[in-house]
Design goal:
The complex is a heterodimer of chains A (about 280) and B (about 300). Chain A has about 280 residues and is α/β, with parallel strands linked by helices. Chain A is about 35% helix and about 30% strand. In chain A, helix 5 (about 145-160) packs parallel to helix 6 (about 175-180) and helix 7 runs parallel beside helix 8 (about 225-240). Helix content of chain B is about 35%, strand content about 25%. In chain B, the strands form two sheets. Chain B has a nine-stranded mixed β-sheet with strand order 3-6-7-2-8-1-9-10-11, with helices on both faces. In chain B, strand 6 (about 110-125) and strand 7 form a beta hairpin. The longest helix of chain B is centred in the middle third of the chain and has 18 residues, at about 140-160. The chains are: A alpha/beta (about 280), B alpha/beta (about 300). Chains A and B meet through helix 4, helix 6, helix 7 and helix 9 of A and helix 4, helix 7 and helix 9 of B. The complex binds iron/sulfur cluster (4 copies). The site of one iron/sulfur cluster has 14 residues of chain B, from helix 3.
Amino acid sequence: MLISIASGKGGTGKTALSLLLAAAHSNISLVDCDVEEPNCHLFLQPAWQDPGREITVTIPHIDSALCNGCGACSTVCLFNAIAISGKTALLFDELCHSCGGCLLVCRQQAIIEESKTIGTLATGTSTTHPGIHLVSGTLKVGTPSAVALIKRMKQETAKLTGDVLLDCPPGTSCSMVTAVQDSDFCILVTEPTPFGRHDLELAMNITCLLQIPTGVVINKSDAASSGDESIETLCESRQIPILAKIPHSLSFAKQYAAGCIPDEFQAIAANIWHKLKSERSAGT
Amino acid sequence: MKELVIVSGKGGTGKTSISAALAFLAPQKVLVDCDVDAANFHLISGAAIRETHAFTAGFEPHVDEETCTHCGKCTDLCRFEAITDGVITTPLNCEGCGVCAFNCPAHAISMKEKQAGHWFVSDTRFGRLIHAELGLSVENSGKLVSKVRQEAKKIATAHRLPLIITDGPPGIGCPAIAALSGASLALAVVEPSASSMHDVKRLVDLVSHFGLPLSVCINKSTLHPENTQELIAWCDHNAIPVAGQLPYSDAFRNAIQSGKTVLEMPENAEVKDSLKKLWHNLATLLEVPATESKFGYLQRRLNPFR
Ligand code: SF4
Ligand code: SF4
Ligand code: SF4
Ligand code: SF4
């Protein structure tokens, strides 16, 4: 089962929940798709099997000796990645989406494709929690879009057997959608505040659009706060189950800040697994 | 005109709460919420929308069913598996590159501008706010960020306001890049946690890539005093001024619950003092008045807009 863990926004405890769920499972793969800021490895201290395999995309390379500056490639590029300067075409590779359109249109055969590194991918087994296998991607600083890297990570993920957890990038942007797409179940993590509710609603719109069964975990929940109710009402109106409430805990926050996966909410995590398994048997 | 951009390596470090507190303290400014993926600033500032503008960016293909011969050429050429023989099967995969349209032998596909979201001008308790909402799963958040910043600059110029306070997007991706380019000062909000400290180092790489002045605010500094010390030492070593340290406090959450800034809440003297200190340090770094001058007061009275 491929389970993605997402939230409308960062900082709701997505990574913490991913780690809790992974630690409560006996043998699991955790895929850190938050490639802008991968953090899971800080907690898992994995022994890397293939440290930092480079991930590339193809971008055009313009041979200025063959190019006559006709400008066809620049006209056809809807991302403005090619400009004509003097008698030759210039590529702005950070704008390129690797669509190959320019290649098709150049009559001079002046364009060939070459590869460009956009990030790295590493896999390893955790030394702190030996049952967890980690796949971690890191976007190269300055690369504007994470989508291509996440797509490649998901191809790797498809090869994995057993249960897979996917720690998704925050937000509801294209990278989050790419990560969540094709999962069997999506857990949305939220906090009981007006911010949390607002962001949760946006995230729900995405999973609804993608038709992925969804459940909600309310983090930093406490009986005294009124925020829980407004989230409960939202979930009820959307018919989305609340899988768990994780209470606000200072000791948890302290251990987590120090880079440990606290034992504290083991029982809650086990219960979420239980619910996920029954969701699956109900779904099939 | 100066522009302060509040950023964090990652979401959830308290960026919006701190931006709102600074918006409360700073006189004469325009506010911008650059978190176009999940804007929240309007929730805390009591925004009343004055203007709504559509934002279009990028393209999407439209297939004329009558002209399409279902030859399948578009499917062969599309690298994103978005189109099958003249039917856009997975619109979410479509990058809007136009390869299908340019190469369709029957000329059955046209590329139309894509509706990508909205941007708003609102009135808030602290002044005018420019914010936006990106359409679901739309790219181009960077462009929308640039758009709201540009509008804020227009307003600041038109009304002679010396400062723009920008609540930046989280992360270091294209929206963060768009929010930071050309700013006067970046304020990175960091928590003394292993992950936040890791994130800020990547953020610093980005900010120095742009050659922007940077300062740091340590939020929840009491959560892990050793890490806080380590952070301060690291900032010293890299010549990054620590503009403020805020203690761990439930006050921020309570304030959000009531739709207010911490400074509008009763009590919490310690938090309030540390926020004021932060603002004064930032005003010095930015070379803008920390409190309202007589001139500013007059100008505000004369200018109903403030
Ligand atoms: S289409 Fe080919 S020849 Fe024309 S400008 Fe582009 S690269 Fe040069
Ligand atoms: S591959 Fe596509 S996006 Fe890149 S330069 Fe060519 S036409 Fe533009
Ligand atoms: S290439 Fe044109 S005619 Fe052929 S299937 Fe695609 S849209 Fe239809
Ligand atoms: S615009 Fe590009 S991505 Fe979209 S369907 Fe056409 S070829 Fe595919």
